[in-house]
């Protein structure tokens, strides 16, 4: 039973992040919630890659025959973290500009520019 | 297939690496080197990529060029560290992928030429980002590995968010970029979760290996769920309803050359990904009819919602954005047939769309820079005598209806044929209606802006007194200072380049043969897997079954579409007179009540957009995994 | 009203996703029991190329093409952030009036900053060049290196930081770092073994000079990542230091 716990936690973190995105009242909070959603994928990846009894897949000081966690998912997680950080930087930069131009960072006050039209 | 020579074998890698390297150099030297150097290098690289991808389209023929990167080509003997299966990343270039790279490179080239003399303040950063964007598009099209595709997918995103928001002095632009970034990143997270679940099930990342493993055991709810998560990200990028809300804002607010690439190339990649992933990994694993019905419904809804919203826009770039959504829906109909002809037609349609919508966006950029607005009403009659820009809009508008020998004609005719052969005449009707509404909207704005036809819309709201008209806020032009005639000519020229490429697509018979072969190769799953596992084995080339586009039905449907488009345009231009007809006012009121709800939904804020995304994902999950 | 409907729609969707997700994930083996055919091959391949850190072997050797894309995501984000937070012509005049930097920093913090600066740079460099042997690598080390520069900000002030960070140098270093990664990859192409192939001698597992191109790529990444972080943090710092002062003047 306990071995399903990581999946459940990943799912929970994903839902919490989505709830935050939907109810957010501040764009910085929105961006952080997006980070929370992304963290759920890190956890899911690491949960999938773990091997029972396995250690870190770094063979500097352990024998070659030791059981190790899957290095693939760790590399993928690393990539994912960097990508997440990069996108976060961009979104925060945009948020600063919104604060300057629009005077508000409440996502609910920033509606799509769809206009009522008359044709 | 004759064994490809050395250069062709390396072309897929070079199509990614050359723009990346050039992008890095431009970013590095941008502070010191003069602007002209960045312009010249970027244009040169985009041109080289266009030619290189074109060479690849010719050279792959009915086969594929498979490249295992990092020298990790699997040993055919099964010895070595991989035991016959590689640990590297594979690029698979078939004709479909190569055609998409050509159109992406051509759009980037046109965009860079368009901005040769403008976007001064942003200097070389813009060029670096455009080149990186191009590399990401190529990498995504060519990747034969799920996680690698995800990386290029995210790179596409990162470059695009920055480009979309770069007009920071314009409040709409920055907000649109945030919407774009948040929604697409959420979609990408779902895609990554899907990739993770597939890795947990199959233990592989190469698409061909994943497909083989999935086929080795009966599918269960996990596979369905993984598929849904995987495609949601692609559907977000493809701007499919209900994942499409970011599109109109982003394409209305981004700099126009960026809009052309977003609308012509990036959105197409989303559709392509769904088709590719289904074909290689899930076809024969998940129920075929479910996928077919779902994609057809999604396609039809997207085509119609986009088209209706398009008619009701007066901001020209927004109008074009909704028409992009509509045309993506049409292409998805072709993919939804899940057969060789449908896919071939969808790709032809997407490439033709790039050659039609690109010029329209560039044309709207010319308007924005000359008049400081792209509001159709404010521009009423302003464009009289600007024949070059007029012709871009007129030809683009007619092209959207699938007028023969313009870009979309080939794709639209083959698509209609494929849909009717597959027994979906209702889908043919959707294609015609979508074409008529989007084309009619562009024809309407062309007639208003360049010919001053119809009632002056600026005076109408006061006369009708319905008070619904909100004045458009003036928009920051993308360039400060007047644009001379030579600069203006340089801006229109790339639009003409794209239109000419579209005519080439429609007229050259070789292209149609190549397209049919592309569809056949795309559909050949065994060939794909075989080529990935044994890259040096020479396989028999696949030959596609080519249908002529010059059929009576095709021409007839084009005529019907065009007639309807003219009707739509005329009804809008002379709206007061239409309302004066006996049924006119009632008709207008009925249309307004239908569209009113749609409008209200589309005034979505960011939380609403996220909610729609989750709802769409939930519906897909119920369909595939419950 | 509209906000409540949104939450309801999203809540219903999340409930459905949760139910379907549970029904789907039941079919997975529990964590720890998932089979890793690719992972096993990757470990074997890491030994084959004498790379003790198998994660780094995957990142830079076996799947170096992913990392190429990842590096350019960072480049795009850094360049994009600089672009998005650029000074507009209209804002430039306001700049002159500002003073930068923390004036009332405790002496102890200053001292700690000065002491930690060389240590941080040393650790960062170590993490970069030992990436193929021990946990770490270009991304991690590059971040540590960038942190070092900001210790200078804490220890001195913004002006000192500005002197350490002449305009254009980090922009150039970042682009050149990314270009160096591409160049090492092209080296493989020229050596005839394919783009991003591990074309240098592999050496012996666990030795400082082993794993072929992996240390070179780590250094390229270290330069790129360090510069990118310096650029991004600098831009945000500028905003943090200017925006509140503007508000204070208005208020």
Automatic annotation (TrEMBL), chain A:
UniProt keyword list: Cell membrane, Membrane, Transmembrane, Transmembrane helix
Pfam families (UniProt xref): Oxidored_q2
Keyword match Chloroplast: no
Membrane-crossing residue ranges in chain numbering: 6-24, 31-52, 72-94
Similarity comment: family membership: Belongs to the CPA3 antiporters (TC 2.A.63) subunit C family.
UniProt source species: Nocardioides eburneus
Name recorded for this polypeptide: Sodium:proton antiporter
Top-level taxonomy: Bacteria, Bacillati, Actinomycetota, Actinomycetes, Propionibacteriales
InterPro entries, per the entry: CPA3_antiporter_subunitC, NUOK/Mnh_C1-like
PANTHER family named in the record: ANTIPORTER SUBUNIT MNHC2-RELATED (PTHR34583)
Localization, UniProt: Cell membrane
Automatic annotation (TrEMBL), chain B:
Keyword entries, A-Z: Cell membrane, Membrane, Transmembrane, Transmembrane helix
Subcellular location: Cell membrane; Membrane
Membrane-traversing stretches: 12-33, 40-62, 97-119, 126-143, 149-168, 180-201, 221-240, 252-274, 294-312, 319-338, 344-368, 388-411, 423-443, 487-511, 555-575
Ranges where the record places region Disordered: 457-483
Protein topology in the membrane: Multi-pass membrane protein
Compositionally skewed regions (Basic and acidic residues) per UniProt: 457-466
Principal location class: membrane
Residue span, NADH:quinone oxidoreductase/Mrp antiporter transmembrane domain: 143-438
Composition bias, Acidic residues: 467-478
Protein family: Belongs to the CPA3 antiporters (TC 2.A.63) subunit D family.
Protein name: Complex I subunit 5 family protein
Species of provenance: Nocardioides eburneus
UniProtKB/TrEMBL annotation, chain C:
Sorted UniProt keywords: Cell membrane, Membrane, Transmembrane, Transmembrane helix
Keyword Transmembrane helix among UniProt keywords: yes
Domain Na+/H+ antiporter MnhB subunit-related protein stretches: 110-230
Membrane topology: Multi-pass membrane protein
Keyword set includes Transmembrane helix: yes
InterPro entries on file: CPA3_antiporter_subunitB (IPR050622), MnhB (IPR007182)
Domain of life where this protein originates: Bacteria
Pfam families, per the entry: MnhB (PF04039)
Primary location group: membrane
Transmembrane stretches, start-end: 72-90, 111-133, 139-156, 176-196, 216-237
Locations listed in the record: Cell membrane
PANTHER family the UniProt entry points to: NA(+)/H(+) ANTIPORTER SUBUNIT B, NA(+)_H(+) ANTIPORTER SUBUNIT B
Record-stated family: Belongs to the CPA3 antiporters (TC 2.A.63) subunit B family.
Name of the protein in question: MnhB domain-containing protein
Source organism: Nocardioides eburneus
Upper lineage: Bacteria, Bacillati, Actinomycetota, Actinomycetes, Propionibacteriales
